[in-house]
Amino acid sequence: FAGLWDVWQTPQGQPARACVIITVPANALVAPIHNRMPAILTGSDAQQWLVPECEAAEAQALLVPYPAEAMRAYTVSPRVNQTRYDDPSLVASWLG
To answer: pLDDT digits over 1-55, tens only?
Structure first.
């Protein structure tokens, strides 16, 4: 996923770390589920994203929906939306 991170100082002078995952409009596979999706970068695009000297326009050009035909969707338990659940049954429907 494309993301950004930063280290900054709080008003109290303490270091703070922050990070975000960048989203883009959903592709045809994800659109029925949500209107946006993470920007997925692979191969040379991922390498380019990590170049500190990458120009803003070049980086922004990488932020496009991942091809729907390169993805698969699986039904999972609605319990995935609750952090108190963390067990294999959350994804059992697609594990087979």
So the answer is: 999 999 999 999 999 999 999 999 999 999 999 999 999 999 999 999 999 999 9
Three-state SS sequence of the chain: CCEEEEEEECCCCCEEEEEEECEEECCCCCCCCCCEEECCCCHHHHHHHCCCCCCHHHHHHCCCCCCHHHCCCCCCCHHHHCCCCCCHHHHHHHHC
Amino acid at 89: S
Q: What are 43's two structure tokens?
A: 């191969």
Spatial distance between the Cα atoms of 22 and 93, rounded to a whole number of angstroms: 28
- What are the phi and psi torsion angles at 48 (to 5°)? -65, -40
Take residue 48 and report the two structure tokens written for it: 């380019």
Q: 């070049």: which residue's tokens?
A: 58
- What phi, psi does 86 have (nearest 5°)? -155, 80
